[in-house]
Design goal:
Radius of gyration: 14 Å
Strand order of the largest sheet: 1-2-6-5-4-3
Number of helices: 1
CATH architecture: Sandwich
CATH class: Mainly Beta
Structural class: mainly beta
Number of strands: 6
């Protein structure tokens, strides 16, 4: 959920890889996620329930490396 491009709550986050005022890199249940913007600051992160909340001016969300379906991973 993104509110007014300056506050967000994301679910399904498995790990926050790194964060700085211009970028937040995370691993989600569906693959990698890079959030770009200005003045980004993590408000809260809970690995137990997979939620990430942050403030700042968001300019983009970039998704990468989604997980392959289970059958495709088993039968290459």
């Amino acid at each position: 959920m993104l509110e007014s491009r300056n506050h967000a709550l994301i679910t399904g986050v498995e790990k926050v890889v790194d964060a700085c005022p211009t970028t937040i890199n995370a691993i989600t249940s569906e693959g990698g996620l890079t959030i770009k913007g200005a003045n980004l600051k993590i408000v809260s992160y809970s690995e137990a329930d997979g939620s990430l909340s942050f403030n700042g001016e968001v300019s983009s969300f970039v998704y990468s490396g989604g997980k392959k379906p289970l059958l495709r991973r088993l039968f290459r």
